[in-house]
Design goal:
mainly alpha
């Protein structure tokens, strides 16, 4: 609880660098904002899909391993 309270009290410090970056590169975001957003969305979907298939692979591997133990 003490650590959470510390992070919450210093939360503003976590947002200052992104805001400065947005202000500093405002022209780039205006010119290429849609492309950047598209890349972020596609990469997020790819990471999510990869995570799902990895978990499925491990679950299938564990279930096959358990079936072999019962045989």
């Amino acid at each position: 609880e003490q650590g959470a309270n510390f992070l919450l009290s210093e939360l503003l410090l976590f947002f200052i660098p992104p805001v400065v970056g947005v202000i500093q590169y405002q022209n780039l975001l205006i010119a290429s904002g849609c492309k950047i957003l598209l890349v972020i969305l596609i990469s997020t979907l790819l990471v999510m899909m990869t995570s799902v298939y990895t978990v499925k692979l491990f679950l299938n591997h564990d279930s096959l391993k358990q079936e072999k133990e019962y045989d």
